[in-house]
Amino acid sequence: MRDYAKEFEGRVAFIRSLVDSSHTAGIVFGNSGGKDSALVGILCKAACDNTVGIIMPCASKRNFELDADDGRALAEQYDIETRLIDLTPVREAEMAQLAGITKLNDTAITNIAPRLRMTTLYAVAAAENRLVAGTGNRSEAYMGYFTKWGDGAHDFNPIADLTATEIFEFLEYLKAPRCIIDKAPSAGLFDGQTDEQEMGVTYKAIDEFLLKGTASEADMAVIRRFHERSEHKRRPIAKYKEL
C-alpha cells in the first residue's frame, strides 16, 4: 500500500505551488458526490483555503438527491465552500436547438451534461480567477471512461496517477464520509447507471491489470477493447505539419 501520509503532503504542496505560480486566487472543482471528486476537494482545500466545489445536477434524479447529499456531506466535513446550479434547463435548451440541425443519438445526449459542467466550471474560474481542478483517475483514463472536453478537461489533476483502488484507500486514510466511500462508482449521467455495469468489468479487475499486469481472459478482452477504442481521447490534438 502507498504511504498516504506522504502522498497527502506531496500532493498538497504540488497544488499550492500551482496556485502560487499561476497567480490565481483559488480553485474550483465539480463536487459530484463521488470518490474522485471527494479526494480532489479534500486535497485542494488543504492546499488552498479559497477552494469552491460546484454541485451541478443535470436531469438525473440521482444528481438532485444522493449525489447532491453526498457532495454536501463532503463539504461540511472539510469546510469546503459549496454552490449548486441546476443545469437541466440548459441541457434541455441545448437539445431543443440541436434538434433543428441533427438527430441526437444516446452517446451525444449522454455527453452533453459533462460538457455543460465543464463550461460551468470554466465560467466560474474565469469570473473569479481560479484554476479548474480535474477529478479523473488512472483507471478511467486507461479505459477512456470520460467525456472528451467534458470531465476530461481541466487545468490540473492531482489524482491522475491513482487507480480507483488507490483512491478508495486514500479516502479511507483520510476518513472521508462513509456515504461516499461505500457507494458504487457512478458518473450519475442517468438514473440506475454505475461505472462497472456500463463497462462490463470491475475497477478491481482493471486495477489488477494496471498494477500487476494480470487479468482473466474475459476481463482482458473488455479492458483491451475499451482502451483501443478510446485512444483518440488520450492523444494530443492532431496538427498539420509539412512532410
* Beta-strand content: 5-15%
Total number of helices: 12
Radius of gyration, whole Å: 18 Å
Number of strands: 4
Distance between the termini: 48 Å
Give me the side-by-side strand order of the main sheet. Answer: 3-2-1-4
List keywords for this structure.
alpha/beta; 12 helices; 4 strands; 243 residues; 57% helix
Short structural description:
By secondary structure, the chain is α/β, with parallel strands linked by helices. It has helices at residues 4-22, 35-47, 61-78, 88-98, 106-128, 138-143, 164-174, 178-182, 195-199, 203-212, 217-229, 231-234; strands spanning 26-30, 51-55, 81-84, 130-132.
Any overview of this molecule?
The chain has 243 residues and is α/β, with parallel strands linked by helices. The chain is built from 12 helices and 4 strands; from the N terminus they run H-E-H-E-H-E-H-H-E-H-H-H-H-H-H-H. The chain has helices at 4-22, 35-47, 61-78, 88-98, 106-128, 138-143, 164-174, 178-182, 195-199, 203-212, 217-229, 231-234; strands at 26-30, 51-55, 81-84, 130-132. The chain has a 4-stranded parallel beta sheet with strand order 3-2-1-4, sandwiched between helices. Helix 2 links the parallel strand 1 (26-30) and strand 2 (51-55). Helix 1 packs across helix 2, helix 2 runs parallel beside helix 3 (61-78) and helix 4 packs across helix 5 (106-128). It is globular. It starts with a helix and ends in a 9-residue tail after the last helix. The relative contact order is 0.15. The model has no long low-confidence stretch (mean pLDDT 94).
